[in-house]
Amino acid sequence: MTVFPKDFLWGGAIAANQAEGAWNMDGKGTAITDVTEHGIAKNQHDKKVEPGKVYPSHEAIDFYHRYAEDLEYMAEMGFNCFRTSIAWTRIFPTGEEETPNEKGLEFYDKLFDKMLELGMEPIVTISHYETPLNLYTKYNGWESRELIPLFEKYCRVIFDRYKDKVKYWMTFNEMNNVHTIPYASAAMDLTGERSNQLRQVYQATHNMYVANALANKIAKDMMPNAHMGIMISLSQAAGYPATPKPEDVFGTLQFQRRTFISADVQIKGKYPNYVKRIWEENDVRLDITDEDLKLIAAYPSSYIAFSYYRSSVFEDGMKIYGDTGGVVGKENPYLEVSDWGWPIDPLGLRWMCNVMQDRYDCPLMIVENGLGDKDTISEDGKIHDEARAKYLTDHVKAIGEAIKDGCNIIGYTYWGPIDIVSAGTGEMKKRYGFIYVDKDNEGKGTLNRMKKDSFDTYKEIIENNGENVF
Ligand code: BG6
Fold first, then answer.
1. What's the rounded Cα separation, in Å, for the pair 128 and 231?
2. Which of 51, 55, 389, 414 is deepest in the core (most CB within 10 A)?
3. How many angstroms separate the alpha carbon of residue 73 from the centre of ligand 1?
4. What mean pLDDT comes out for the span 446-451?
5. Is the CB of 419 under 6 A from ligand 1?
6. Ligand 1 centroid distance, CA of 226 (Å)
7. Which residue has the higher pLDDT, 326 or 444?
8. Residue closest by Cα to atom 10 of ligand 1
């Protein structure tokens, strides 16, 4: 008996803004990440592109022009799927045009065609921290309901165009991160006192739930065989209580619910009871209509895609500070950490798979997991990234164990199979790739690609359909 199903999806994942570059080419508009100089983790950004500043997304790794070569590398590793996002601003530069930008649509035609030619199922994130900047400036992003019909229009266009090429879709990248990185997740700034900020968070996520349900509704008509998923960060939920103190244990549950609510609403189709008390006690008054609730109930998503990088430790009363990798809590003395201080915890991944399976009983896809590390070129001219190979092997093994536990896991897309810009910090030197890209934090380098040792590790795992990790 093999552990991984024979049609298991093996691949990698990137996002348009972290890889494509060509930020203003062929009619593309400015996205929120085109005005962040040092990443999104601190919610700091300019209001417009400032002359003379180096914004990492502007060139990124020039995937826009080099995608064919890059996908060939992925094919060599044996990928049968590849996850990327569509940059909303390539299709609707400000989000508000009446007609889409044909050049932008053509780019994704070529990209998906190349994937299909190489035997890779395209897996598409519709919005990955790339909302048109105009929608932030004009509406404070998803705080406003104005974005719902604009998102629907965008979905109609891309569903119509790519329905014969793309079967796996997910609406919003890590939408449960609105609490910690609202600018990236919901294209909005939080303002005013805590109760207002909470209102903004819950209103924005509500508007996104409605948009998600609408996307599911139109997908049902336009591409009945498509799989429509949600995407959440489980690094945000993998919290261990700091002690057996009941307050730490109960506090951990409350903290996890900030993530679970996204799946509760969008998979189960209704708001959970626990949220009502949070709204009441914080005087959070929301614009939620009966029609919204009916839509959410009628069009739930069919699978859960999630990212998992790390776990954290929760202590009652702790101030919750988050970044792209989840929440920065207390130290965990049992775990090693990456060069960026993220605890390495494969068992935490198995734990999260089991929790999600028990709670939602639907297919699961791990669409982000990886080690962001410094890489050095050795004297032999090669990159011996043992730590990354080990991280990969240990996490694939944890997924295998979760499958043995009974979890219905349908795919694994390692994050950043080729070095790309870090979302959190905007750095290039935080590298995840099996393929090295010659570019530094200052934006200098040849952009040449080179395989690291971990390239062969993943290739071997895929060749063996994961059986060699046990
Ligand atoms: C996830 C994001 O939060 O974490 C990715 O979906 C991001 O966009 C990834 O790149 C890793 O975070 P970072 O900050 O190391 O790039």
1. 10
2. 414
3. 22
4. 98
5. no
6. 26
7. 444
8. 423
If you average pLDDT over residues 421-447, what whole number do you get? 96
- 90-111 pLDDT tens trace: 999 999 999 999 999 999 999 9
Q: Is the pLDDT of residue 328 over 90?
A: no
Q: Is the CB of 15 under 6 A from ligand 1?
A: yes
Helix/strand/coil (H/E/C) assignment for every residue in 145-213: CCHHHHHHHHHHHHHHHHCCCCCEEEEECCHHHHHCCHHHHHCCCCCCCHHHHHHHHHHHHHHHHHHHH
Measuring from atom 15 of ligand 1, which residue has the nearest CA?
422
d(Cα 299, Cα 269) in Å, to the nearest integer?
Answer: 7
Query: In this structure, is residue 144 part of a structural domain?
Result: yes
Tell how far the Cα of 277 is from the centroid of ligand 1, in angstroms. 32
Task: Single out the catalytic residue among 98, 174, 401, 467.
Answer: 174
**Spacing of C-alpha 1 from chain mean position:** 32
Confidence band, pLDDT 50/70/90 cuts, at residue 1? confident
What pLDDT shows up at residue 418? 98
CATH of the domain at 293: 3.20.20.80
What is the average pLDDT value for the chain, to the nearest integer? 96
What pLDDT does residue 291 have? 98
Q: Which of these is catalytic: 121, 130, 368, 401?
A: 368
Position 3 in a domain? no
14 C-alpha to ligand 1 centroid (Å)? 9
Beta-strand pair 81-85/364-368: unpaired
pTM score: 0.97
Query: How far lies 75's CA from each of 81, 309, 371, in Å?
Result: 9, 24, 21
In 19-101, at which residue ranges do the beta strands (DSSP E only) sit? 81-85
- 238: tokens are 């993998």
> Which of 294, 297, 395 shows the shortest CA–CA distance to 353?
395
pLDDT band at 194 (very low <50, low <70, confident <90, very high): confident
Query: Which domain covers residue 395, as residue numbers?
Result: 9-469
Residue 50 pLDDT exceeds 90: yes
Instruction: Classify strands 326-328 and 321-323 as parallel, antiparallel or unpaired.
Output: antiparallel
| Whether residue 327 has pLDDT greater than 80 | no
Going by CA atoms, what residue is nearest to atom 2 of ligand 1?
324
Q: Tell which one of 18, 259, 368, 429 to mutate to probe ligand 1, the residue whose CB is within 8 A of the most ligand atoms.
A: 368
Structurally, the chain folds into a number of domains equal to 1
Q: Could you confirm whether 368 is annotated as catalytic?
A: yes
Cα of 323 from ligand 1 centre, angstroms: 9
Is 1 part of a structural domain of the chain?
no
What is the residue with the minimal CA distance to atom 3 of ligand 1?
A: 324
Q: Is residue 257 part of a domain?
A: yes
